[in-house]
Amino acid sequence: MTYAPIGTTPKGAQWFWSWNFAIPHLAHNKEIAQELAYWLTSKAFITSVKGKYGYYAAPAGTRHSTYSDSYINAIPYASYEYNALLATELDNINVPTTGSQFVPIPEFTALGYLVGVQINLAVKQQVTIQEALKTAQHQSEAVMRRAGYYHN
Asked: By the 8 A CB rule, do 14 and 93 touch?
């Protein structure tokens, strides 16, 4: 996670796409899903995960107590991530609730996944940055073409 681009808003978009739980309105077991979400973000669960699997396995961004001194010392980016979360002003957002980086089309999630895979391959140095960008562009164009947004 990093700070959102500033653009025309003084503190950036202040919106993070995937840091949430959602229980669909039509879900059959809403109460059980709510209990699961509560447990997965509980201090006891996060402490257990840290102890059993290590700090990297602990779900970040779920609670302030996750960012203990030992967690921040163990995870190189944890203090940056925590400060970015603290800088988010949830009660004073002057942008639409969908955020400035969200594109409201059905293909948005697929495009994010495809580009994310290429970024991951480049970070792991399995492909060059140029190859990752070229592949991501090609895949994105294919998705958009199939969806009927443009034709070549």
From this structure: yes
Instruction: Count Cβ atoms below 10 Å from residue 54 Cβ, excluding itself.
Output: 11
- Tell me the residue type at 57: A
Q: What CA–CA distance (Å, rounded) separates 86 from 64?
A: 9
Q: Give yes or no for a contact between 74 and 55, defined as CB atoms under 8 angstroms apart.
A: yes
Give the Cα separation of 132 and 100 in Å (integer): 25
Q: Name the average pLDDT for the chain.
A: 82
pTM: 0.53
What does the alpha-carbon distance between residue 50 and residue 45 come to, in Å, rounded to a whole number?
A: 9
Q: Is 64 exposed, middle or buried (0-12, 13-18, 19+ CB in 10 A)?
A: exposed
Give the pLDDT mean for 34-45: 93
Q: What letter represents residue 80's amino acid?
A: Y
- Measured CA distances, 23 to 97, 113, 138 (Å): 18, 21, 34
Q: What angle do CA 123, 48, 16 make, to 5 degrees?
A: 45
Closest by Cα among 91, 98, 21 to 63? 21
Rounded CA separation 110/103 (Å): 12
